[in-house]
Backbone:
């Protein structure tokens, strides 16, 4: 049962990017050591677009590849850390489970430690793991409506709720 949900209408790809950037900024300002965002929606719904913009906002440089064939792409990120008065190096993982045909592939993949560990995990096609993933802090469901995207954000943990509350008012108003 989600703690809170937010329903947004994203006008275009730029609005999807703005949402992703806002979520990334909110995470860096709320110093949670772990973040799991699951990305749901059909092919072409904007899951990878969101993930790329989120990673860019965290400072990832260079090409951000879709993990459709590699299953996971790992990126080193530096997060400002007020407690240590500097930056904290952590990892961001972009994971795509589309090619899984059996939930047991999740068990065999070795990704449980990655997703359950510190850093950011963005997981596309989480339903392919059939409930074996840890609880998502945020679930983002995207559905294309012509050029627009219907976006439902659901907070599944206190961290996710904090991030939803931190979204700028201009995003919340749709």
Residues:
């Amino acid at each position: 049962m989600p703690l809170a949900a937010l329903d947004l209408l994203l006008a275009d790809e730029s609005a999807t990017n703005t949402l992703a950037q806002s979520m990334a900024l909110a995470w860096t300002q709320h110093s949670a050591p772990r973040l799991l965002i699951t990305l749901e929606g059909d092919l072409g719904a904007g899951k990878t677009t969101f993930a790329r913009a989120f990673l860019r906002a965290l400072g990832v440089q260079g090409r951000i590849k879709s993990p459709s064939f590699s299953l996971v792409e790992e990126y080193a990120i530096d997060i400002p850390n007020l407690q240590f008065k500097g930056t904290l190096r952590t990892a961001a993982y972009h994971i795509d489970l589309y090619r899984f045909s059996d939930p047991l592939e999740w068990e065999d993949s070795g990704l449980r430690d990655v997703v359950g560990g510190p850093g950011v995990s963005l997981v596309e096609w989480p339903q392919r793991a059939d409930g074996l993933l840890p609880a998502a802090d945020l679930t983002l469901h995207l559905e294309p409506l012509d050029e627009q995207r219907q976006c439902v954000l659901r907070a599944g943990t206190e961290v996710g709720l904090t991030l939803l509350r931190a979204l700028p008012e201009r995003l919340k108003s749709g």
Summary: The CA atoms of residues 45 and 144 lie 5 Å apart.
